[in-house]
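wait is this the right file?? whatever heres the structure
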């Protein structure tokens, strides 16, 4: 499933969902890299 996260205030990353962390941050995979950030809402 493709998800979008925000890293900082202006950088967004779109990738394959990896997991939701206990602190409400989300991890997504782009190629071999895993990024962690705040999930972007659907609305």
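ok assuming it is, sequence goes like this
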């Amino acid at each position: 499933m493709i998800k979008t996260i925000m890293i900082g205030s202006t950088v967004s990353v779109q990738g394959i969902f990896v997991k939701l962390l206990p602190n409400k941050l989300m991890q997504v995979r782009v190629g071999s890299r895993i990024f962690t950030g705040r999930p972007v809402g659907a609305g």
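The chain has a mean pLDDT of 95. so i think its the right one actually
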